[in-house]
Amino acid sequence: MLQRSLSRFFAHLVREVDTAGFAGNFRRLHHVGAASTQAKVREALEAKCNVLFCGHHGTGKLNLLKAIGVQCEKKGRRVAFVSADSQRAARLDGLLINFFIGIRVSRDELPSQEQLEGTLERHVRLVESTFASSLPSLCNVDVLILDALERVQPTVLLSMDAVARRLRGQPNKPFGGLCVYAAADFWRLPVHPTSDTGGYLFQLEQWNHLFPSQMLLRKSHVQKDKELQRLTELAFSGALTLQHMKELEAQSMEGKPEAHLFSWSSSTTEVDKGTATAMDGDSEGEIEEEDAMSLAQWTRFSNEPAGASLDSPGAVRGATKDSEEGADNFVGSSSSPSSSSSSSALALLNDEMTSNSFVATRMLLRFPRQPAVKEMPQRYRQLKRTEMGNFLVNMLVHSCSAVSLGLVDALNVDVGSRVHLLLDGQEHYGVPGGAVGEVMQVRPHFLSIHFPREHRTIDVPRMRVVCYHPFYPEVRYEVQQFPVFPRKRVCPMNIVTFPHTFFVNLNGRRMADTNDLGNLLAHQRSFADFTIRNTSDFAHLDGMVHEPTRIYYHMIGKKSISAAKEQWCRNCKQFVATDAFFEHWAACVRSVRWCSDCNQTVSLDLLEPHREKHQVVLCLDCGRPVEWRHWESHRLSCGPMMREVSTDNQFIPLRTRQLALELGLDKRDLHTMACITKSSLPKPKEKVL
């Protein structure tokens, strides 16, 4: 067992914002001292056990963790602030979990648990010896504040638990007696409609032992409108009815210029009237993309004053499907010359949300106009030759990236571009974070932006942040970037990632990921910040709400799934009594899985070999996709086989020919195949065997 070094306390990274530039508040912790937060802190500290806080965006998880850490530090306990998300780690003034446990920041597949435990143990010993306890580790802290637990793989958490038990000398206590306060938003899991029903962190057998106290936070500190909070909760749980969707769309459109196009731009009203039709042609798909809201971006509203369109409370209620003629006249009159008031109304229109795929494929330029300026530490190449220097430089680079501060790494704006302010800056600017404006002038060190809603034109300089370790202040990493976000890149992924993305037209047809609807609504402050349409196109799709997370949140919230007597188990495809559903679900996901190809349940122990039977391989000779279970019969009957193994066969490598001749293999065993997935296959002329 390692003895904890108390002679030298560790220190967290320091991130300093230069007040000569844009002093953006990237931490955004506004409720640490609130009475409700302090009450939760006292409740967590009195529990005397590991505590987990769950909840969607805006429920105050980060404020709670920061307040708990501050209270523990006041009592003289050694606290480590750790997060699995770089942006949330910066807001906590803490470390990425990769540098806390000593694993690489990469997307490579994680090693086995045994190898991972060896890596974690080596890092703990390295911190005690080479790093001289200058960094927190599993062995030299008393309290671990662990955020963004949803991004931690189950193997990593189990390895942390096993290593802490061994090195801290308390094998019978979770994490070796280390006090852990964690937070997770499992609605943010990277899942899709075909994701597995099991294998998630909260389904571990040791989960309740690792975190005996699990609290579900429901109250949103971001959303000020109680009605929006209620609809957001319904969207997360998948309980939105058609009436709820109509109410959501109507309230988001009320008093806005987009209300004139509400009746014929949303499929929700058409579903209610039974007039919605499926659009499956290419030409129809193109028409769908250039819908009414896209036209609204260019509408000048010349036939009425801007104030009337913005303030009329009955604009939505009067817009029905029967008044399409009035809407057509309204759009048709937009071609006439506009006054100054109509142009201001045009500037106040919400921006259209694009899809994630469109932004990823067309908007991420290789050579942006305003890339983030990154200044490496002096003599960093010499520093990286030492073990401590290499670790320190990598930690600074990943802990103070532009994205970790809530900024755009590759910015591409020009005169006329619409942008919004990402962070709250100095008070004398008079423009809050989230304000939308138009770039009037682009200079190397500032952007001149006009904000029509605030009636201000300001020069926004770059935001300059310096990051260093207090024990090594001479090793400094610096990043500079303009604190703005281009509105043409607004998509579900960026709304969730970057702060203060408001005044957006949300479109259900451009949401693709599971839980998108709830996550997007949770980031909006009130109905004034967004408009939404085509909600039913997304909410009525199967798998758009993550079922394991929904069940887990109902379980820790001590709420029944529904009022029905029986519940449908999606894992084993059968009805279960409501009273015994939670117990059945916990046992079911740990024992069996449903095979959609065989239409039956398969034991979890036999799942991998069973899936191999359905693996599709591509015969490179005849070009036909074949299931692996039929491969043996196919290779014996395939006509266009490769030639026999001989010295003249130039299509087979020499070493392969020699080995085949030595082993006495015939030509059928050299038949070529490639492991592929069904989704990547072209549609074959013949049916899959």
TrEMBL record:
Superkingdom, taxonomy of origin: Eukaryota
Biased composition (Low complexity): 333-343
Region (Disordered): 264-286, 304-343
Protein name: ATP-dependent DNA helicase
Organism: Porcisia hertigi
